[in-house]
């Protein structure tokens, strides 16, 4: 990435030149996006890149060594991705209640309540993997990375979660 961003631009941006800062951010954006796509949930990539660029624009003057610019950028975007993952994980641990009413299928309110009750009846680790796969649409590999599981463990949890939910919904 530093091959795209000239040392002169970095130095000028660090000294407060707004045009140089704009060039540095423009040249860094695509690499940050690529890195964020690997480390962030799909829906959070652009937000993480934007937050990272904002942080870079505010903190560039504090960078002591220009040689560490690239690793500094990647650490910032990685931190943002981790922040989004923690926020999602905290959200997943909020208990699901029967008060959830979805506007998508108003004719099937009974089914929605049954599904919400079935999800709430699942243990947290099963509910989490089921939400990530079937609601968020993550792949098994993405679930493994997010939850720190092996591929086999994630697939087993998903299979067991679906079986328990079906068992709960069976009349």
Structure explained in plain terms:
The structure is a single chain. This protein is an all-alpha fold and about 170 residues long. It contains eight helices and no strands. It has helices at about 5-15, 20-40, 45-60, 70-90, 110-120, 125-135, 140-145, 150-170. The longest helix is centred in the middle third of the chain and has 24 residues, at about 70-90.
Write the element-wise H/E pattern from the N-terminal end onward: HHHHHHHH
Would you count the extended β strands for me?
0
What fraction of the residues are assigned to beta strands by DSSP?
Answer: under 5%
The percent range for helix content is: over 70%
- Determine the N-to-C terminus distance: 59 Å
Q: Main sheet?
A: none
Task: Average the pLDDT over all residues and give the rounded result.
Answer: 81
Radius of gyration: 22 Å
Work out the helix count. Answer: 8
Shape: elongated
Structural class of the secondary structure composition? mainly alpha
Low-confidence stretches: 102-106
């Amino acid at each position: 990435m530093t091959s795209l961003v000239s040392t002169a631009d970095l130095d000028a941006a660090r000294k407060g030149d707004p045009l140089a800062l704009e060039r540095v951010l423009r040249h860094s954006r695509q690499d940050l996006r690529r890195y964020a796509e690997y480390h962030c949930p799909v829906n959070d990539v652009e937000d993480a890149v934007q937050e990272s660029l904002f942080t870079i624009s505010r903190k560039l003057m504090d960078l002591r060594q220009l040689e560490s610019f690239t690793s500094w950028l990647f650490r910032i975007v990685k931190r943002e991705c981790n922040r989004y993952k923690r926020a999602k994980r905290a959200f997943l641990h909020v208990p699901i209640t029967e008060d959830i009413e979805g506007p998508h299928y108003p004719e099937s309110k009974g089914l929605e309540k049954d599904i919400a009750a079935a999800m709430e009846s699942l243990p947290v680790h099963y509910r989490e993997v089921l939400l990530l796969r079937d609601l968020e649409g993550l792949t098994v590999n993405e679930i493994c990375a997010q939850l720190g599981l092996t591929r086999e463990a994630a697939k087993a949890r998903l299979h067991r979660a679906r079986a328990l939910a079906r068992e709960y919904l069976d009349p």
